[in-house]
Amino acid sequence: CIGNGICKCRVCECFPNFTGSACDCSLDTTPCMASNGQICNGRGTCECGTCNCTDPKFQGPTCEMCQTCLGVCAEHKDCVQCRAFEKGEKKDTCSQECMHFNMTLVESRDKLPQPGQPDPLSHCKEKDVDDCWFYFTYSVNSNGEANVHVVE
Q1: What's the fold here for domain 70-151?
Q2: Where are the domains positioned within the chain?
Q3: Which residues lie across from 19 on neighbouring strands?
Q4: What is the DSSP string of 92-134?
Q5: Is the pTM of this model over 0.70?
Q6: CA distances from 135 to 74, 105, 111 (A)
Q7: CA-closest candidate to residue 150, choices 86, 90, 97
Q8: Which residue numbers delimit the Integrin beta subunit tail domain (predicted)?
Q9: N or C end of the chain, less CB within 10 A?
Q10: Mean pLDDT, the chain, whole residue set
Q11: Contact 6, 13 (CB under 8 A)
């Protein structure tokens, strides 16, 4: 019963807040609490202390990350542009408004982080003020730190 219950006649009798045949399922919903105070951000169910996201677009420990939503790239485009290239709408306010992520410059698009890493990752292709394309990735790690990789 993995320490969460007592075995009686080869059947686990679980302590409060645990269930399952081996008492391996926690009924504690604290790990599923999103930053907005909702269980699984209102986009999933909390099963055994883990979010099961019901909306397939969303993922992450509390169903807050969306890789395919347009928002992530568009939302950070101006800050990435001013931090990486010192131009764009936020050029003059960059140091005040755009220091909320760690930034790494990479030589080419194939040097950008690829899907398959543990942190949800968004690949972005945006146009700059000179009508040129620039490429970056945006991810948030388990500590809540945002990381941006930009092609030089």
Answers
A1: Hormone receptor fold (4.10.1240)
A2: 5-66, 70-151
A3: 25
A4: GGHHHHS-SEEEEEESSGGGS--TTSSS-EEEEEEE-TTS-EE
A5: no
A6: 12, 11, 11
A7: 86
A8: 73-152
A9: C
A10: 87
A11: yes
Rg (CA), the chain: 21
pLDDT digits (tens, 9 = 90+) for 19-74: 999 999 999 999 998 877 888 888 889 999 999 988 778 888 888 887 666 577 88
Closest Cα to residue 104, out of 115, 113, 94, 91? Answer: 113
Q: What topology is assigned to 5-66 in CATH? A: Laminin (2.10.25)
How many residues are there in the chain?
152
Distance in angstroms (rounded) separating the CA atoms of residues 46 and 28? 9
SS3 call for 30? helix
CB-CB contact of 62 with 33 (8 Å):
yes
32: three-class secondary structure by DSSP: helix
Residue 108 to residue 85: CA distance in whole angstroms: 15
